[in-house]
Amino acid sequence: MKTEILKPNIKTYKKAGKLIRSGEIVAFPTETVYGLGASALNEEAVKKIYIAKGRPQDNPLIVHLCRKKDIKKYVKNISKAQKILINKFMPGPISIIFDKNEKICDTVCAGGKTVAIRIPENKVARKFIKATKCPICAPSANTSKRPSPTLASHVYDDMNTKIPLIIDGGQTNIGIESTVVKVDNNMVYILRPGKISKEMIQQKCNLVAIDKIDTSKIPQSPGTKYTHYKPKCDMVIVKNDVVNNINNLYQKTIRNNKKPIIFCKAENEKYYKDKNHVVLGQNSEDASVNLFKYLRTYENNDLIISEYFDNGNMVEALFNRMIKSASGNLI
Fold first, then answer.
1. What is the pLDDT of residue 58?
2. Cα–Cα distance, 174 to 291 (Å, whole number)
3. Which domain holds residue 310?
4. In sequence order, what are the residues at sequence separation of 6 or more whose Cβ sits closer than 8 angstroms to the Cβ of residue 210?
5. Which of 13, 67, 284, 287 has the fewest CB atoms in 10 Å of its CB?
6. By CB neighbour count within 10 A (0-12 exposed, 13-18 middle, 19+ buried), where does 77 fall?
7. Is pLDDT of 217 > 50?
8. Rounded to whole angstroms, how far apart are CA atoms 221 and 115?
9. pLDDT at residue 226 is higher than 70
10. CATH of the domain at 157
11. For 171-198, how does the pLDDT look when each residue is reduced to its tens digit (9 = 90+)?
């Protein structure tokens, strides 16, 4: 299969819509990462996503819509707390779990009775969804367990010959996947952290939000059961005595005739001037934008040594992705 990369315009949206309605899959940008989309109403099309990604079929997908009023078409009910979340944060980088109705394919939900729904803030994403005239289920548009794509070129690296079309909307501006939440008895449970934090939910919605990830049952949220975001090389995160530990680990790696690279904060770059390094950002928001891109860019080194980011409003979400990228390797 030939994989095209096209800029977003009326002609591209028309072509993408036709592909989706014919049962194909199309990659498209959102504000978080690029998604790999298929009609959530077409069982065979949904299966193509799992095949293209090499993704386990017990890992559910998120359904993307372009309008708030469309949510009620695909869920059994919308609670008062869910309505508050919708009104405060949609469109935006949040996915809310609902009890699904019979319209959404069972494969989308990995055999469960719930479905995660979000409305992207990205205008290209919404225009694409509108052109398809159907709900779009989409995980990140990468090979399973690889760093999520934040550029169309990342999608092409993983999906060339596997899908017919990639809509190139440029670099995503958040860089990590959406926050996934479930509401139970007016309590908001964070199943996957993202740009929308529990503090934001509590402040803007006057709802209690807590972290709750349970992987012992059928997962209701993507990104909670399997290893994710792994670069080709090893990675370690340094949280304690940062500069000394990084410099010692760097020198040890060099002595073993291996090539390390340091991911650091802008304020600490001065400590690594004589070493192979790159500034990941000034804070957790900056680092989130760059993380997956840099993991792909610098994975040909033998070891990525990254500073822990304790500043900014996305500390928890960033660390969630970083610790998975490093397979739990933390100093």
1. 81
2. 10
3. 234-325
4. 187, 188, 189, 190, 198
5. 67
6. exposed
7. no
8. 9
9. no
10. 3.90.870.10
11. 999 999 999 999 999 999 999 999 999 9
